[in-house]
Amino acid sequence: MATQKTTPDSTRRSERSRRAIYDAALALVGEVGYAKLTIEAIAARAGVGKQTIYRWWSSKGAVLLDAFLDLGEQASHAASENAGRERAETEIPNSGDLEADLKYVMRATVDEFNDPKYDAPYRALAAEGLLNPELGAEFVEKLLEPQLQLFVKRVRQAQEDGQVGPEVDARIALELWAGPLAQRWLMRSGPLTHAYVDKLVEYALYGITPRPRPS
């Protein structure tokens, strides 16, 4: 009886190659930095031909952006599974306490910035986005703006609950705490700690002049 031959699954093979390319790009940018990162090095580390990479991406920046987006997706999926939930879009919690909710998310952001696994590729993409307008626009559209819109949504919920003035522009308001954190991270101008981001949230919500806090 002849053994039936199975047809290779090209989709599965492509997914394995894509995953290997993502892993290689993220590992290499942490090891050698973005300036020394090359398509050839990514291909060699991933065990694929460089033409395979060029078939899917136009540049090393494009590879790294997709790899970083995938890293976030994988982390979100793992967190959902660990919590025993169906995979869902990330949301800023709404406990009814805006200050506590913002501090919770800002602390998590600091933890991510302090993790070399995230810091190296994120920093490389932010810097390259300034030099490469096309990549920069994609970085903002796919990575930065969706994260900022989560804050916008939470501030608008607080407006509906009467915790934030109705005249406040939520998109501008979030820059009061997100902007200083981004600057300190990019410029390495000071330590990134939970205490630091707690103060950013407090100053944004209550200002710096003496006034009673809401009960």
Structure overview:
This protein is mostly helical and 215 residues long. 70% of the residues lie in helices and 0% in strands. It is elongated. 20% of the residues are buried.
The end-to-end span amounts to 82 Å
- What portion of residues is helical? over 70%
State the low-pLDDT regions, or none. Answer: 1-8, 84-89
Query: Structural class, judged by helices and strands?
Result: mainly alpha
Order of secondary-structure elements: HHHHHHHHHH
User: What is the overall shape?
Assistant: elongated
Regarding quaternary structure, what we see is single chain
Short key terms for the protein model shown above:
70% helix, 215 residues, elongated, 0% strand
What's the structural blueprint in terms of helices and strands?
Layout: H1 10-32, H2 39-46, H3 50-56, H4 60-82, H5 98-113, H6 116-131, H7 133-160, H8 170-173, H9 175-187, H10 194-206
Helix pairs in contact: 1-2, 1-4, 1-6, 2-3, 4-6, 4-7, 5-10, 6-7, 9-10
